Amino acid sequence: MPDRPALPTGRIATLDGVRGMAVMGILLMNIAGFALPEGAYYNPAAYGSSGPLDYALWAVMFLLVDGKMRALFSMLFGASLLLVAERAETAGGSAPGVHYRRMLTLALFGAAHLYLIWWGDILLHYALVGCLAFAFRGQTGPALLRGAILCFVIEALIAAMLYLSLRQIEVAGTTPGAAASAVKGWLDTRAELGLSTPDRLAAEIALYRGPWSGIVAALTGEKALLPLYLLYAGGAETLGLMLLGMAALRSGFLTGQWPRRAYWRAAAWGYGIGLAGTGLLLLLCLRSRYDSLTVFGASMAGGLPFRPLVAIGHAALGVLWLTAGRSGLRDRVIAAGRVAFSNYLGTSLAMTALFYGWGFGLFGRLDRTALYLVVVGAWAVMLLWSKPWLDHFRYGPLEWLWRTLARGRPQPLRRRTSPPNAA
To answer: Domain coordinates of the chain in residue numbers?
Structure first.
């Protein structure tokens, strides 16, 4: 068998389908970032939890979604990066030229998303890390896997240093007789990690219920350096996940080429170790009564070894379902994955219109349980529009715009004939 087996040509249904599952699943975590004060993204005690069901739903998200869907999304980005580069080479084009134009255009989309719409953007981060990941495209599957593990080790060291520095701030600010500046430093840090003061909460709620101009001022002001922080605090992990996705594509894992029993085995190992470790972290959070630094540490640094494993479990079950036979739901999930870029950015526009002051102003008004009903509604929209659109057009609207800008000329959008399976 060659060290670098040829990748499949044409659309890969399993890759599109798993991407569809990822873009739908990531909203389960992002919904708190759209609708609640920032600390509630990690900590259920920060805001939005008024009863046992809210806390129970947070616990389920912590086990299955928090960081895991982002990990799966990152893996799929790495796989797609490799696929686009190799197909450009096969067509006789310049893989570096195609890749870096795509990343530059993606960075522009990401910057607009981050500074004009929502602070939780991931696209700019992917564009920056994707420039580094491209250098590994010629590696074999085992080499990519070793590179991913090295990245995770580097990320673990960075995360440990960050966590220890936060603990030092806590000790300095809570020791009896601590200086006023140290106390204030800890209270500010504690608020940023989750448990904010009433005054800060009120100010944040007023900001996002206010006009768009005020939100943009905050995003371009206090959030201006967020991409640099993400590179420092999560860049190594993201690169490792992209390399893991490349290895998964090269091995045939993401293309449905493994025996079904191998996927069941991958799911068992991924969930068995990943969920067990995440479950211990969850117990630690519960025992601490949602201490802000404990929950933040468990979600970020503590979850690092387990996120890729659970993501692999999700991908394995996804491929098993996608290859089990044709169904209407399967086709719609695949379509949602083919227009994942449009679904991701479209979701941000829809959710901020729903929750921010320039729209319906529901920011901070719904508890977690109600927010997950909003998620189900958003899923229904994704599944309902994606397939009919692709029955008539080659790409999603934003996929077409990305492709057009990256290639410097308008791309054909409308299909000449309807696909054979068009409904």
So the answer is: 13-338+346-388
